[in-house]
Amino acid sequence: MIALSCNDIYRSFGAETVLEGVSLTLSDRQRLGLVGPNGAGKTTLLNILTGTLEPDRGHVSRPGPLSMEMLTQDDRLEGSETVWGTMKAVFEPVFAMERRMRQIEAKMGVVHDSDPRAYERLADEYDRLTRRFEESGGYGWRSAITGVLRGLGLPPECDEQPVDTLSGGQRSRLALARLLLRRPDVLLLDEPTNHLDLAAAAWLENTLKAWPGAVLVVSHDRWFLDAVCDTIAELSFGHIWVCPGNFTHYLAAREERYRQQMAAFEANQQEIARHEAIIARYRAWGREKSFRAAKSWEKKLDRIERMERPQTGPTLHFRLDAGRRSGEEALKIHGLSMAFGEKKLFEGLSLELRLGERAALIGPNGIGKTTLLSLIRGALRPVAGEIRRGAGVEIGYYDQMQSELNAHKTVLDEVWDAYRQLKPQQVRDTLAAFLFRGDDIYKTVDMLSGGEKGRLELLKLMLSRGNLLLLDEPTNHLDMDSRQVLEDALIDFPGTVLFISHDRYFISRVATRVLELNEDGLADYPGSWAEYLERKSRTQAEPEPSFTSPAMTRTQAARAERRERRVREEARRRRAELARVETEIAAVEDEITAVESALSQPLHIPADELTELGIRHGALGQRLADLLGEWEALSEETMQEGPHE
Question: Which of 40, 229, 431, 622 shows the greatest Cβ crowding within 10 Å of its Cβ?
Answer without folding.
Answer: 229
